[in-house]
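> example.struct
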């Protein structure tokens, strides 16, 4: 009978090469998963985003026409959701695609700095009113 001993064999595991784009933060993945199956009826976007924010113990802030604020989308909603590390809340955007059939979630970027500043101010006003 032949012996199949692994002693002395060098087995190396290769890691996949780094992705060209950074991985999505955990909180954005959770938000996108909760938006899966979005319905396209009237007010469907706003309601879907509200439900998704609530399911993550977050807050829906506002939704408005994209008006060139982001590429290939009709509407933008601002949300405040818990950070994955549990140290506070962060502003993210949910964007209804140009076809009105899908929603993507993004962290604020250089292109949406003004909208993020507006969302931060909006949160400040809400906190003062409470």
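> example.seq
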């Amino acid at each position: 009978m032949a012996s199949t001993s692994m002693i002395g064999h060098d087995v190396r595991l290769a890691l996949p090469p780094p992705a060209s784009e950074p991985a999505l933060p955990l909180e954005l993945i959770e938000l996108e998963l909760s938006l899966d199956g979005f319905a396209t009826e009237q007010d469907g976007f706003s309601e879907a985003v509200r439900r998704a924010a609530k399911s993550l113990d977050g807050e829906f802030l506002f939704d408005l026409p994209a008006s060139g604020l982001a590429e290939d989308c009709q509407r933008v909603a601002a949300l405040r959701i818990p950070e994955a590390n549990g140290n506070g809340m962060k502003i993210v955007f949910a964007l209804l695609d140009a076809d009105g059939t899908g929603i993507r979630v993004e962290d604020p970027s250089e292109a949406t700095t003004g909208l993020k500043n507006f969302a931060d101010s909006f949160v400040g006003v809400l906190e003062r009113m409470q």
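> remarks
The beta strands are 59-65, 73-82, 89-97, 103-106.
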